[in-house]
Design a protein that fits this description.
By secondary structure, this protein is mainly α. The protein contains two helices and no strands. The radius of gyration is 32 Å and the shape is elongated.
Length: 82
């Protein structure tokens, strides 16, 4: 099992953050900044997506819910399921 130690990396990270802040004025973003969900508001209309569906291979049967469900006439044994 590997143990990850970031103690030595923190020194260079602090130096890099200080340099970026001092020379470019860019602060380090908070943890989770790049994984946030963002919603962009715009005046542009939403694009219309039109997907052509293929013709069905067969017509699906229609069932009347008032019709009774056919009962099973013979009970199955366990060996018939295998």
């Amino acid at each position: 099992m590997y143990v990850v130690r970031c103690d030595s990396c923190r020194k260079t990270q602090y130096a890099f953050d200080k340099c970026m802040l001092g020379k470019m004025g860019i602060e380090r973003p908070f943890v989770g900044y790049f994984s946030k969900v963002r919603v962009h508001h715009t005046n542009r209309p939403k694009p219309e997506v039109h997907v052509e569906m293929p013709e069905p291979l067969y017509k699906t049967p229609t069932y009347d819910p008032k019709d009774p469900i056919p009962e099973i006439t013979k009970k199955r044994t366990t060996s018939e399921y295998i």
